């Protein structure tokens, strides 16, 4: 039965998951002053109690002043903040779950708060725009790389089971990948995607030194940006390989391949999606994600569009034939902590629709 593929254990390095379900990272602005609350810990514990294989937390800011653009999004530095994250880890582990923090820097992406000097590869927020801040200096680049490594080291010390770097959706690492926002002429820029990947590769190398060889390091990537849904870092499989292979060589273990709709082919002439191509080209395990279990994609949700439960039969067929290894589930799990149990037990009539109001609640 295809459903068996979703509930097969997965092991990679020290990560030993009971099934293939990953809770995708979803920003939840419920950490006043950047400190996760008891409610946040309980929110993650509920998913662990209900058989989520690996929880990836909401994005959490590394130690740069402007790594976040919302004062209620959690930070991953500071004594109070790390103590609160330790409680989250302990709650998830007490429920038998596994958890990884998503380490984040928003870069030039705009938000409701400005929390310090904005970091940006070239002072641009989108292709063809006018510079609105100064490009990062060599010292600022080096400090940011060190901030990611320090966060990864702290994650391991706190007992997290893995870490994920947010390299997607037009945030800082992705701003270095994208030729629309990275027009640098130094070692961290250049006309090719391989050259523009150096910033991410240096972060991965520093993280690997910080956590050691057996600790799983995930990197989340996307072709699309919040600034431009249609743009691609890699227009061909050859360019995709030129982008991903240096990251694998630098220490990325698992690629978390974000699409708005997981079923869409990445390139013409093949039905492989982004995660399928990433696995084919690098041999690394991959996570697929994008509207799993729901009828509508998540960008529309912010505009008020609801989504109904949708069949995952096509997803299961792809997973069963090995196109990708793990499945990221976002809004379906945000709305319903019991989604995994209901899928496993065939209680499809109990699956919940997703409504925008769920973004304002910690179910």
Textual characterization of the structure:
With 363 residues, the protein is α/β, with parallel strands linked by helices. It has one domain (2-360): TIM Barrel. 34% of the residues lie in helices and 14% in strands. Strand 3 (21-23), helix 2 and strand 4 form a beta-alpha-beta unit. The longest helix is centred in the middle third of the chain and has 21 residues, at 138-158.
Outline of this structure?
The protein is an alpha/beta fold and 363 residues long. Helices cover 34% and strands 14% of the residues.
Would you identify the regions where 5 or more consecutive residues have pLDDT less than 50? none
Fourth CATH level, the homologous superfamily: Aldolase class I
Strand numbers in spatial order across the main sheet: 3-4-5-6-7-8-9-10
- Which percent bin holds the helix content? 25-40%
Tell me the fraction of residues in β-strands, as a range. Answer: 5-15%
CATH classification, class level = Alpha Beta
Q: Number of folding domains?
A: 1
Broad shape: globular
The whole-angstrom Rg is 19 Å
Give me the secondary-structure category.
alpha/beta
Largest sheet: 8 strands, parallel, barrel
The total strand number stands at 10
Q: Could you tell me the CATH topology label.
A: TIM Barrel
Mean pLDDT: 95
The CATH architecture can be named as Alpha-Beta Barrel
Distance between the termini: 31 Å
* Helical stretch tally: 13
N-to-C order of helices and strands? HEEEHEHEHEHHHEHEHEHHEHH
